[in-house]
């Protein structure tokens, strides 16, 4: 059994990407999961001036959590066809502690949005940037049209095709953690 850390790259308290993280996390029973809600954590905006004062405790806290696990589940939100400034800021801070802060980490990368593309542009950007920091994106998927394909009350994906696809991706991801 391995420990997996899961979070959304969104600072919205009602994040649909966090809801997707919760849905996927409930599917994994053979590993220990810790789900973080980063919208509850203060991360100052990265700058050289702020960095000279020292790395914020919340950044060190997240870095330590990441270092303790072999695998991550991350769902990125999309703003203006890119990852959110919140998620980019977190990456900037973490990479200043250690450029390869994701070295040896296997990642299930996801995205969702209210639109038809499901945050696919942010997903592709995140695939590229996370590997730059040493991570291995072993599985990924995008859930389009969140409001039509996800029931918030039950926390379930209601579109059968997407449900089957997510199940397949999660099964593959958990198998690859064991390898």
UniProtKB/TrEMBL annotation:
<dbReference type="GO" id="GO:0016491">
    <property type="term" value="F:oxidoreductase activity"/>
</dbReference>
<dbReference type="InterPro" id="IPR005025">
    <property type="entry name" value="FMN_Rdtase-like_dom"/>
</dbReference>
<dbReference type="InterPro" id="IPR029039">
    <property type="entry name" value="Flavoprotein-like_sf"/>
</dbReference>
<protein>
    <submittedName>
        <fullName>NADPH-dependent FMN reductase</fullName>
        <ecNumber>1.-.-.-</ecNumber>
    </submittedName>
</protein>
<dbReference type="Pfam" id="PF03358">
    <property type="entry name" value="FMN_red"/>
</dbReference>
<keyword id="KW-0560">Oxidoreductase</keyword>
<dbReference type="InterPro" id="IPR050712">
    <property type="entry name" value="NAD(P)H-dep_reductase"/>
</dbReference>
<feature type="domain" description="NADPH-dependent FMN reductase-like">
    <location>
        <begin position="3"/>
        <end position="140"/>
    </location>
</feature>
């Amino acid at each position: 059994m391995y420990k997996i850390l899961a979070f959304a790259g969104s600072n919205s308290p009602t994040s649909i990407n966090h809801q997707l993280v919760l849905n996927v996390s409930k599917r994994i029973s053979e590993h220990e999961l810790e789900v973080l809600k980063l919208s509850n954590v203060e991360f100052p905006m990265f700058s050289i001036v702020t960095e000279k004062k020292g790395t914020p405790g919340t950044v060190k806290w997240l870095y330590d959590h990441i270092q303790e696990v072999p695998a991550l589940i991350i769902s990125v939100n999309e703003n203006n066809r890119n990852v959110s400034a919140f998620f980019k800021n977190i990456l900037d801070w973490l990479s200043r502690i250690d450029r390869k802060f994701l070295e040896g980490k296997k990642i299930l990368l996801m995205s969702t949005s209210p639109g038809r593309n499901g945050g696919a542009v942010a997903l592709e950007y995140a695939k590229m940037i996370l590997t730059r920091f040493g991570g291995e994106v072993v599985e990924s998927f995008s859930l389009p049209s969140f409001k039509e394909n996800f029931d918030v009350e039950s926390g379930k994906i209601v579109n059968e095709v997407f449900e089957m696809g997510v199940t397949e991706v999660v099964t593959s991801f958990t198998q690859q953690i064991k390898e």
